[in-house]
Amino acid sequence: MRKTGIFLVVLGSMMLSSCLVSRKKYEIAEAGRWAAMYSRDSLADLLDGSRTQCEGLKRDTATLSNSLRNYMGLLTSNMSEKDKLNSLLTEKMKELGEREKTIVQLQNLINQQNEKVKSLLSSVKDALMGFNSDELTIREEGGKVYVAMSDKLLFESGKAIVNEQGRNALGKLAEVLNKQTEIDVYIEGHTDNVPIKTAVYQDNWDLSVIRATSVVRILTETYNVNPLQIQPCGRGEFKPISDNGSSDGRAKNRRTEIIMAPKLDKLFQMLQNNQ
Questions:
Q1: Backbone angles phi, psi at 226, to 5 degrees
Q2: Contact yes or no for 180/124 (Cβ under 8 A)
Q3: Which ranges in the chain are annotated with CATH 3.30.1330.60?
Q4: Going by C-beta distance under 8 Å and a sequence separation of 6 or more, which residues neighbour residue 127?
Q5: Where is mean pLDDT largest: 52-61, 73-82, 113-122?
Q6: Tell me, which fold does domain 114-271 have in CATH?
Q7: How far apart are CA 176 and CA 127, in angstroms?
Q8: pTM as predicted
């Protein structure tokens, strides 16, 4: 590439400054071209004897100049492509920097969520520490805090009215929920697989839904938990945590779970903005 550029510059300079004779019109010009490569004096003599052909030389020179400009245009074009590549590289580097910044922000949000869950778990354990493990259990799983209250803590067999002991437990939990306004709360009713059909409840699914709703009413109407935080649902016998083949297993499956999770609005928004 460098040799080609030097050749073109030398050729252009010689054609522009020395007015060489065109090969198309004069055979002697070819000999003069080669002679000019070796002797400045013979080139001068040749030009002195060829003044009448100057106009032809100008036309040839103009043609060469056009070719040279075209070639320089290609070089400029290549430089422009290089500039485009540099610009693209700069843009990609900036994009990479933004991505790295986003990753740091996401990690900070995740760390904040983890800290909120730890704090929530600790607060719930402190609030409900007076209850036995056969009455309720507390665990953290998947960034959520689960409080599983047995049916004997909350309800009489086959009924959905919360008893006094259950109200007391829900009241202690409500103290935590009223301080933790940036969390979502899900109330899930669960039963064993023993069929039930009464004048009030059509099946276990029906019973689980009504029990979940009863817990929601106690939390919101008696203890003033924000109703917009809470969502009740019934799972019936379809999400057991133990074997329904034994009485102990069925007892564990008859439960109401209060599931608490810090709101993920900011995290979801950031993920959506970076899709």
A1: -60, 120
A2: no
A3: 114-271
A4: 172, 173, 175, 176
A5: 113-122
A6: 60s Ribosomal Protein L30; Chain: A; (3.30.1330)
A7: 7
A8: 0.64
Q: Percent of the chain scored above 90 by pLDDT?
A: 45
Q: In terms of DSSP bridges, do strands 255-262 and 230-236 run parallel, antiparallel, or are they unpaired?
A: unpaired
User: Residue 186: its pLDDT value, please?
Assistant: 96
Pick from 137, 145, 89, 92: nearest CA to 114? 145
Q: How many CA atoms are closer than 13 Å to the CA of 249, on its beta-carbon side? A: 11
Please give the pLDDT value at position 142.
Answer: 87
Per the CB < 8 A criterion, the answer to whether 142 and 186 are in contact is no
- Candidates 102, 233, 123; CA nearest to 183 is 123
* Token couple for 98: 């933004």
Contact 186, 179 (CB under 8 A): no
Token pair 């949000």: residue: 109
Give the C-alpha separation, 263 to 275, whole Å.
20
- For residue range 88-145, what is the model confidence (pLDDT) as tens digits? 667 767 766 777 777 777 788 788 888 988 999 999 999 999 899 889 999 999 889 9
Q: Which residues pair with 257 in a beta bridge?
A: 148, 188
Which amino acid belongs to residue 21? Answer: V
| pLDDT, tens only, 223-240 | 999 999 999 999 999 999
CA angle, 154 as apex, 202 and 237 as ends, to 5°?
A: 40
Instruction: Show the DSSP H helices in the chain as ranges.
Output: 2-18, 27-38, 40-48, 54-127, 151-154, 164-179, 204-217, 247-253, 265-273
* Pairing state between β 230-236 and 144-150: unpaired
